[in-house]
Every structure is written in structure tokens, then in C-alpha cells.
Write a structure and sequence with these properties.
- The complex is a heterodimer of chains A (273) and B (283).
- Chain A is built from eleven helices and no strands.
- By secondary structure, chain A is mainly α.
- Chain A has one domain (19-181, 217-267): 3 helical TM bundles of succinate and fumarate reductases (Up-down Bundle), CATH 1.20.1300.
- In chain A, helix 2 crosses helix 9 (201-231).
- The longest helix of chain A has 31 residues, at 201-231.
- Mean pLDDT of chain A is 92; it is low at 267-273.
- Chain B is an alpha+beta fold and 283 residues long.
- Chain B folds into two domains: 12-117, Beta-grasp domain (Ubiquitin-like (UB roll), Roll), CATH 3.10.20; 123-279, Fumarate Reductase Iron-sulfur Protein, Chain B, domain 2.
- Chain B has helices spanning 42-52, 94-100, 124-132, 153-163, 170-174, 191-203, 208-220, 228-235, 249-253, 260-281; strands at 12-19, 28-35, 79-82, 85-88, 104-108, 115-117, 120-121.
- In chain B, the strands form two sheets. A five-stranded mixed beta sheet of chain B has the order 2-1-5-3-4. A two-stranded antiparallel ribbon of chain B has the order 6-7.
- Chain B starts with 11 loop residues before the first strand and ends with a helix.
- The model of chain B has no long low-confidence stretch (mean pLDDT 94).
- The chains are: A mainly alpha (273), B alpha+beta (283).
- The A-B interface holds A 1, 3-6, 10, 14-15, 17-19, 21-22, 89, 92-96, 98-100, 102-105, 107-108, 111, 190, 193-201, 204 and B 84-85, 132, 174, 176-177, 179, 203-204, 229-230, 233-234, 236-240, 242-249, 251-253, 259, 261-262, 264-273, 275, 278-279.
- The complex binds iron/sulfur cluster (SF4) (2 copies) and FE2/S2 (inorganic) cluster (FES).
């Protein structure tokens, strides 16, 4: 890149501003946006029943120890990169919606607000269900006490549903999820302009409609997932999950790991058996 | 005759002006009472204010400074923020403005450029940005080189609207991604040194839709094309097209109805391809 008009005295960010901003843009779609769609689809399987959802979680957890690496490399770090840089960009912009209340300007502001909501939501959501630290001492001493890290992959539906069975929590998830979906769908549209996929106003209008369609579709998937969890009978689900666990760990189709259950089987008496 | 909200005809109206005595000085507001006449524009209002040089409370004051040139919306020099919205003051008709608010008109300098005095701003950054993207056709001598390459009808039709830009700054004023850059002058600094320092500060900040669109215009020109690579490098450089946040305010406020977001889309596409070639093709 010999002809680049930046000077060696410029900061690292300035010298690579183009690549950093484009990487930020790309990151929003791959892997972050794509992951979100897959995540919501997987969650929506709860509509089909506890078993369907549990089976998908088994599949994900068949990665075993590699799962943590995949989570960090393809999910957490890209989200952090996209979000933290996003905050820097918001800081260096000057919103003027009150003087110029145009549609594009509303979308511009909404994109930034939804991004901030999405960040808060995702952070809370990851802590609430995943918890990031999977060590026993952390769970026993801190997590359980303050109600974080509640998800157990081998009691997938029951722990998720239990964590969501509170109208306030549910509302928070609904708002957060919709903010994420809006940010994704609208971001897809602006990304197409940024990269030069849709150029003319006519093409941008068409693309806008398609992105709206995608947004509505993904929202429906997300709402179905939340609705599905709301309807789960936690105790029944737990029983069924333990049956599944006993059977599948015996036939060797999943890794036996009692840390991934709500309680170790011995203590709980395997659900009263 | 214009009527106010109660059906009374308007005999006079107030003009609130955001004033500033010198670069970097604190801005302050003054109100002037202007007698109504039909068919005034904001420039004629400012002329009346200059002859009065007296605020609405009767206090004597310096005349408000402003800039203008063509008086027909082609030079861009009279651009200011009128009732909160950026536009040319020569084409801002008082009758229309009073329809929105029969009592008052507010005038402010553009907020994205350094104020020279009152409503006069320093728009040199826009011209510096044109230099950054080499917004010209390269001709390096006086020798007659014969007729240039022909431009098709279609090319002319896409180029013409872009060539109408009058460097007024409306698009930059309304762009949420374009931020003001103003350097304080050091004691004993010469004009040239100060200008140099400002230019360097401008060079890493956002180009804005005006310069991006001009880069697109000259990259489409048969002779201008010869420097297309340089322009794309400038567009991908610090403060380049990547800073655009797609708010599309620029296209909404441009008084020349220049399809700025189409230019941004075209430039975005060209830069994407150019960069991929540069990174993977080593060119
Ligand atoms: S589209 Fe880009 S250049 Fe135009 S106003 Fe929005 S951010 Fe500024
Ligand atoms: S593009 Fe339009 S708004 Fe921007 S400087 Fe040119 S004429 Fe003015
Ligand atoms: S005086 Fe030239 S545009 Fe207003």
C-alpha cells in the first residue's frame, strides 16, 4: 500500500482506519449477526419441545473442550471488538436529529441506540445464563447466590426456562433481543451501502425492504423462542432431560459430565427414582 | 401580506442572530426588530440590520457580518443555519420563513466550520479536502493535445448533476459524522504557518460527502480517470469514506439535489474493489 495518503506519524488507528472500520462492519455480519440468527433458530426449537432443544444443545456440546475456544474466538471476541469500537465511533459523532428529522437520520440514531442496548443486553444475557467462568468454586460461592450462570447444557430447557420465568426478565430479554435484531437488519442495509452492494436510491430502497423482511422474520423466530421458554414446565422438563442424559451417556452418544447438569445425579436421586 | 397566528398582519418581526466577535471568541445572541416588506430574503434582512446597527432594545451595536456572492444560489458563500436548518440565505425567502414562525427568524453560522465573525465562516477545509482527493483533471502543459476522449450521453448525464456542487457546506453541516475542526492560533504565528497547521489537522478528519462526490465525478471523467487510483487511495485513507455512517442527511439537505448517497455507494464499491486488489493483488 505505497500510495496510501497516510503519514507514518499518524496513529495506528488512523493509518489503518479504513481496514479497521471495514472489519468492524464485516464483523457485524460475520460472525456476530450470523451467529445471532443461528442462536435464535436453535432456541426456537424449544417450540417443538424440550427434546428438540436438548438435542441441539447436545450437538453444540459435542465439541467438548473446544467449545470454549469456539465461543471466545467466534462469538465473544468479535462481539467485544464490534461493540467497543462502536462506542468509540458513537463518541466521535454528533447527532442532530432534532434539526434534521429525516428518515435516514432516525435510522442512523436508532442504529446507535439499539447497538448500545444490544451491548448491555448481551453482556447481561451472557452473565445470566453462561456466566463465562465454569469453575465449581465460582458457581457455588458467587454465581448461584446472585443468580448468574444459570444455564446447564444437559438440563438445557429446564434451566433456561427457569431463568426466564419472571415477567421482568422476560421483558428485558424481549427488548434486548428486538434491539439486537433491529441492529442486525438495519446494519445489513447500511453495510450494503458501505461496501457498495446497493448504490442507487432505487436499489437501496429495495434492499431496505428486503432487510426489513429479514428483520421481521428473525424477530418472529426470536419471539417464538422466548414464548417457547415461557411455556416450558420446568419440573417436567427436568425429568425428561435427566432420562435423556442417563440414556445418552450410557450409549456414549454424549460426553458424560455431571457439571453440565443442574445437580449431580447421585445427590438428587435422579429426579426421585 | 403575511398574517400571524391570530390573523393580524405582520408589520415587523424579530431576527435573532448568533454573533461572535472574532475567531474562538464566545458566541452571544442579539435580537433585531425588522420592519416587514414583501418579498424579502435573508440577505435583505441582513442589509436592513446593517443599516440599523441597533438591537431591538435600542442598544447600538456593530453591524452583523455575513458573506454572499451570486445572490442566486450558485456560489454557496451565503450558507448559514436559518431556523435551525442549514441553507443559503440568498434563497431563503422571508415570507416562507414567517409562515413557519410569524414572529421570529433565527440566524446562526454553520457549526462545522470555524467562525471568522458573526455569520461568516472559514470553509477552507472543503477546498483542502478537494485537494486531498485530487478533484481536478490533470493537464500538465499548455500544448494543444487535440480533442479529448469522447463522453457518452449517459456518462454526461451522470456527471452533470455532480458537477453542480458549489462547495457550500450544507451537506457537511448536516452530516452527523463530520465534526468541526478548529485550531487556535498561536501567538506570533504567521498566516502561512497557521494555514499549514490547519491543513494538516484537516487531512486526517472525515472528507465528507462533498469531496467524496467530487472524487466520484473526476474518476468518471475520461481524462480524470488517469488518477483514479490516487483518488481511491485518498478515499480509503485517514478520514476517508469509511467514516460515513449512512445517515443520508447530506442528500436530504443538498440545495443542488446532488445524489450524494449514490456517489457514496459508488465510491464505496470502487474502494472495496480497489482495496481487495491492493491487498491480494499487490498492486
Ligand atoms: S450519508 Fe454519510 S456523508 Fe451523508 S450525512 Fe450521512 S454520514 Fe454524512
Ligand atoms: S454537495 Fe451539495 S450541499 Fe454539499 S457542498 Fe456541494 S452543493 Fe453544497
Ligand atoms: S449568495 Fe451565492 S449562493 Fe447565496
Amino acid at each position: 500500500m505505497d500510495a496510501a495518503p497516510s503519514k507514518p506519524t499518524d496513529s495506528f488507528f488512523l493509518r489503518h482506519e479504513f481496514l479497521i472500520r471495514r472489519l468492524h462492519s464485516l464483523c457485524g455480519l460475520i460472525p456476530v449477526g450470523l451467529y445471532m440468527v443461528i442462536h435464535l433458530l436453535a432456541n426456537a426449537s424449544i417450540v417443538n419441545g424440550v427434546e428438540s432443544f436438548q438435542n441441539i444443545v447436545y450437538q453444540i456440546h459435542s465439541l467438548g473442550k473446544a467449545l470454549v475456544v469456539v465461543e471466545w474466538v467466534f462469538i465473544f471476541l468479535p462481539i467485544l471488538f464490534h461493540a467497543l469500537l462502536g462506542f468509540v465511533f458513537i463518541y466521535y459523532s454528533k447527532n442532530n436529529l432534532s434539526n434534521y428529522p429525516y428518515r435516514g437520520n432516525y435510522r442512523y440514531v436508532a442504529q446507535r441506540i439499539s447497538g448500545m442496548i444490544a451491548f448491555v443486553f448481551i453482556f447481561a444475557h451472557v452473565l445470566h445464563l453462561n456466566g463465562l467462568i465454569h469453575a465449581d468454586w465460582f458457581r457455588e460461592s458467587i454465581a448461584d447466590a446472585i443468580g448468574i450462570a444459570q444455564f446447564r447444557p444437559y438440563n438445557a430447557a429446564s434451566t433456561a426456562a427457569n431463568a426466564l420465568h419472571n415477567p421482568l426478565v422476560m421483558f428485558f430479554y424481549l427488548v434486548g433481543m428486538l434491539a439486537c435484531v433491529f441492529h442486525f437488519a438495519n446494519g445489513l442495509w447500511t453495510m450494503g451501502i458501505t461496501w457498495g452492494v446497493w448504490v442507487t436510491p432505487k436499489a437501496q430502497d429495495l434492499a431496505s425492504k428486503i432487510c426489513l423482511g429479514i428483520g421481521v422474520l428473525v424477530s418472529i423466530i426470536g419471539i417464538s423462542a422466548l414464548f417457547g421458554f415461557w411455556q416450558v414446565d420446568v419440573d417436567k422438563a427436568k425429568k425428561r432431560e435427566i432420562e435423556m442424559y442417563e440414556q445418552r451417556s450410557k450409549d456414549g452418544s454424549i460426553y458424560a459430565d455431571e457439571h453440565k447438569l443442574s445437580q449431580p445425579l447421585r445427590k438428587s436421586g435422579a429426579g426421585g427414582k | 401580506m403575511i398574517k400571524d397566528a391570530y390573523g393580524h398582519s405582520v408589520k415587523s418581526f424579530q431576527v435573532r442572530v448568533q454573533r461572535q466577535d472574532a475567531p474562538g471568541a464566545a458566541p452571544y445572541w442579539q435580537t433585531f426588530n425588522v420592519e416587514y416588506e414583501p418579498d424579502m430574503n435573508v440577505i435583505s434582512v441582513l442589509q436592513k440590520i446593517a443599516t440599523m446597527s441597533r438591537t431591538s432594545t435600542g442598544k447600538e451595536t456593530t453591524p452583523v457580518a455575513w458573506d454572499c456572492g451570486c445572490l442566486e444560489e450558485v456560489c454557496g458563500s451565503c450558507t448559514m443555519v436559518i431556523n435551525g436548518r442549514v441553507r443559503q440565505s440568498c434563497s431563503a425567502l422571508v415570507d416562507r420563513l414567517l409562515e413557519d414562525n410569524p414572529r421570529e427568524i433565527t440566524l446562526q453560522p454553520m457549526s462545522k466550520f470555524p467562525v471568522v465573525r458573526d455569520l461568516v465562516v472559514d470553509r477552507s477545509r472543503m477546498f483542502r479536502n478537494l485537494q486531498r482527493v485530487k478533484a481536478w483533471v490533470p493537464v500538465d502543459g499548455y500544448a494543444d493535445m487535440g480533442a479529448g476522449p469522447r463522453q457518452s450521453r449517459g456518462e454526461q448525464e451522470t456527471a452533470y448533476p455532480l458537477s453542480e456542487c458549489m462547495t457550500c457546506g450544507c451537506c457537511l453541516e448536516a452530516c452527523p459524522q463530520f465534526l468541526k475542526v478548529e485550531l487556535e492560533r498561536k501567538p506570533n504565528e504567521s498566516d502561512a504557518e497557521y494555514k499549514q497547521r490547519c491543513g494538516e489537522a484537516y487531512d486526517t478528519e472525515f472528507l465528507g460527502p462533498q469531496a467524496i462526490s467530487q472524487a466520484v465525478l473526476f474518476n468518471a471523467h475520461p481524462t480524470g480517470k488517469m488518477m483514479a487510483g490516487d483518488r481511491l487511495d485518498a478515499l480509503a485513507g485517514p478520514g476517508g469514506i469509511q467514516v460515513c455512517g449512512n445517515a443520508q442527511n447530506c442528500v436530504a439537505v443538498c440545495p443542488k439535489h446532488i445524489p450524494l448517497t449514490t456517489s457514496i455507494g459508488r465510491a464505496g464499491r470502487a474502494v472495496t474493489i480497489h482495496k481487495i486488489k491492493q491487498i491480494f493483488g499487490g498492486s
